[in-house]
Amino acid sequence: xxxxxxxxxxxxxxxxxxxxxxxxxxxxxxxxxxxxxxxxxxxxxxxxxxxxxxxxxxxxxxxxxxxxxxxxxxxxxxxxxxxxxxxxxxxxxxxxxxxxxxxxxxxxxxxxxxxxxxxxxxxxxxxxxxxxxxxxxxxxxxxxxxxxxxxxxxxxxxxxxxxxxxxxxxxxxxxxxxxxxxxxxxxxxxxxxxxxxxxxxxxxxxxxxxxxxxxxxxxxxxxxxxxxxxxxxxxxxxxxxxxxxxxxxxxxxxxxxxxxxxxxxxxxxxxxxxxxxxxxxxxxxxxxxxxxxxxxxxxxxxxxxxxxxxxxxxxxxxxxxxxxxxxxxxxxxxxxxxxxxxxxxxxxxxxxxxxxxxxxxxxxxxxxxxxxxxxxxxxxxxxxxxxxxxxxxxxxxxxxxxxxxxxxxxxxxxxxxxxxxxxxxxxxxxxxxxxxxxxxxxxxxxxxxxxxxxxxxxxxxxxxxxxxxxxxxxxxxxxxxxxxxxxxxxxxxxxxxxxxxxxxxxxxxxxxxxxxxxxxxxxxxxxxxxxxxxxxxxxxxxxxxxxxxxxxxxxxxxxx
Length: 560
Hints:
It is a single chain. By secondary structure, this protein is an alpha/beta fold. Among the domains are: 11-79, no CATH class; 84-149, no CATH class; 160-262, no CATH class; 442-509. The protein has six helices and 51 strands. Helix 5 (440-471) packs antiparallel against helix 6 (477-509). The N and C termini lie far apart (132 Å).
């Protein structure tokens, strides 16, 4: 049994041509050694056997070797194996990977074997070059090698939008009427009518792909988006649908896929160099408005610096971050906010008076020698001195002032609903009048009409007396001509009287009386202060502390 087997240390190896298996033979022997798997494998190698060794069977052999002492045993420990080529295809058919298991005494892998396996799995695209496969065959053992790779479809790119505002050339521009306009000042850009604002890069179709089986993969088309824009200020170029142009002059507002143009003019200072400015839109003044200048806007006006003895008119809101001085006059269709304050000339007259007339709210830091009229409410944050304040709703003065100094002193303050101040009057006894309970604008308009009617009625009386006097002195030609002229003038004055009487009647019908109107003084009332609620009047003859004035049975009552 063991005649043709090389026995050493009580074991040897036997090969079966029929089964292609390797057996270990154990024989009784006195020279057995402390055998290990490493020694067994070395003996197999020394005897030029190329087999795949089964580790489990080898361990069983070692156990029997050390236990069996009398019997001769044959025990299978390995077998001859051919090299194996295994190719795995991913589920999405986009990649194939290859494993090569080397031969154990059997047939080796050839390039043809690999090509046949590829063919069997119908892999025809993205296969690595033959010279690379030949190198792999030489290596014999390969793990997880990407032998074929598909090409994924590339989706089309969505339409893209590119702003070109940064490319606009910086240069001054002068309108036909000589008003100043700038394309760019600092970091604020102004565009002109017809300027290019944005370009669109159309969507692409994408690129089709191919999987390793050779199947074409369709590409997803890019989304072809359109411009989004304000039709009142921007339009698509009729000669190039991928261009967005400005239809007005103003500041561009650029967003992801479109634009709008805000009608805004930006200047450094308004002075003799710039000239008076009129603009159909909003105006931003980065500096000051100098003495004697005029600024007009159909929308908002914002001034970063001071306004000196100038005229401003706008239909929107007015913001002045600096102060206002001199005989400045503002007419505003919206709200007014002046952060520092307003300071007019001390000896202003009704003709040349510093004045703010606003349809909206008015908020200023302080007011000196100024007239402020609001169709809403007025807030004077610190104090008002010798100012004429008139509001349709309410007026608050000095509520942010922490000092005990007078906050409303001199002048006249008139609001329909309420007036609230920290301190009313001053210890100098300066006359300070506060009126509430009626609409000041209507009351003032009625007063002016009544004054005008007095003048008209006096003129009518004087002309009639003149005509009577002329008629008593005869009827010669010269006299008759004068009488004719006087009668013509009389007709004109009577016509004016009728018109003013109608206006007086209209305004009188609009009078609104607020019965619960109040004057609230949070700290002190000084002697000389006058409070009027509707038609009732109260005069402070001595000093008072915190007081609320209201009307009770047509008399002004004081509540601490």
